[in-house]
Design a protein that fits this description.
367 residues; Rossmann fold; 2 domains; six-stranded parallel β-sheet; 15 helices; 38% helix
Length: 367
């Protein structure tokens, strides 16, 4: 059996900030790491001017971490206008594998954790790409100038067509990707959190009197509506977890509106558990991780009436905004549907290990 090298493109999940893409990507990476051995080595690639020291990308036996310090704009320009430059060859040389047999007979595979510019040689046998959603195509009017330049240089359609397989997080995203890009080989693995769900069931959590929103300043996240809702309900306490919120001018907020920035994942999960409700007002999502996390933690969730949310998370689990007014009664997470959410999380942990791309590599079968 020929030895295998799996190139894991971790450029999108090296940011210390936490969002849905990064959570899912890091969960994928943890399971890849568990299955590294002498015949299935991992090459983790990150790129930034400053190297970030994170546990999930550290080297260990059969796992090599290559960090390049190429300015991102230069990297995008190289991949767009110099297609003859193939990054896998450079990474392989930098890894400096000592085994001659491994160097000569290695089969290369590629897995990208989010869309980034990439040029790969014909020596890469199979190429897979995770795509969280296609908001960058559906809601182009919300993109900043920087984002528009990024997607122009990357050319998402061209990048996606280079891939043998696309992996996404929901049937909704699968349909959207097919509609926008026409890729035929799309696999769905639902997101989830790797943690002991039994502990949450046994723990007696004392709910506190606040409504929590976990979001970002991206216009499609619809935080302006959250501010209107908070002004319509001055007696309610709102907590927003969001970085760089100055974009919305803190001085215009009510006293009942508190902003938390640069929170750890552990702190965010604690806030979700203790909240009397969570609110999520995004106009477009491939999945909706904050909704999923609220259901997992048995915390009522308030959303706009988005068809995708109702279909994915079940109507009886959701409470809805009407004319920027909070619902008078919050729907509690039903036991049956709470079990479904937990079951999906367990299913995810098993599924990632058996992920189509990685499973076939492990057992030396064709994808």
């Amino acid at each position: 059996m020929k030895p295998k090298l799996i190139i894991l493109d971790c450029r999108s999940i090296q940011d210390p900030a936490i969002n849905g893409v990064i959570k899912v990507g890091r969960n994928f990476l943890k399971d890849f790491r568990k299955h590294a051995n002498s015949q299935k080595r991992l090459l983790i690639w990150t790129n930034s001017l400053k190297k970030i020291d994170l546990d999930f990308i550290k080297e260990k036996k059969y796992i090599v971490h290559i960090h390049t310090r190429i300015p991102n704009i230069l990297l995008h320009l190289i991949f767009k206008f110099l297609p003859f430059i193939k990054i896998d060859g450079l990474l392989y040389k930098l890894a400096n594998f000592k085994s001659k047999d491994y160097s000569k007979n290695t089969q290369k595979f590629y897995f990208g954790f989010d869309l980034r510019s990439i040029n790969l040689s014909a020596k890469v046998k199979k190429k897979s790409q995770y795509i969280h959603d296609v908001a960058f195509e559906v809601l182009k009017e919300n993109l900043s100038l920087k984002a528009k330049i990024f997607y122009f240089l990357m050319d998402p359609k061209k990048t996606i067509q280079k891939m043998d397989q696309i992996i996404t997080n929901s049937e909704f995203s699968k349909k959207e990707i097919y509609k926008v890009f026409g890729h035929n080989n799309i696999k769905v693995i639902e997101p989830g959190l790797q943690r002991s769900l039994a502990k949450y069931k046994q723990a007696k959590i004392q709910k506190e009197n606040y409504i929590l929103c976990i979001s970002s300043k991206d216009p499609r996240k619809n935080l302006k509506q959250l501010i209107k809702i908070s002004k319509n309900h001055p007696k309610e306490k709102f907590i927003l977890v969001c970085n760089d919120f100055d974009y919305y001018q803190k001085e215009n907020l009510n006293l009942n509106f508190k902003i938390l920035e640069n929170q750890t994942e552990e702190k965010i999960q604690e806030l979700i558990k203790k909240a009397k409700a969570c609110i999520y007002l995004s106009k477009y999502e491939g999945f909706g991780m904050p909704i999923y996390e609220s259901i997992q933690n048995n915390t009522p969730i308030i959303v706009n009436k988005v068809k995708h949310y109702i279909k994915t998370f079940k109507k009886e689990n959701l409470s809805f905004i009407e004319n920027n007014q909070l619902p008078q009664n919050l729907n509690k997470i039903t036991k049956n549907n709470l079990y479904v959410a937990k079951h999906q999380a367990r299913k995810l942990i098993k599924s990632i290990v058996k992920i189509w791309f990685f499973w076939k590599i492990c057992y030396n079968k064709e994808i």
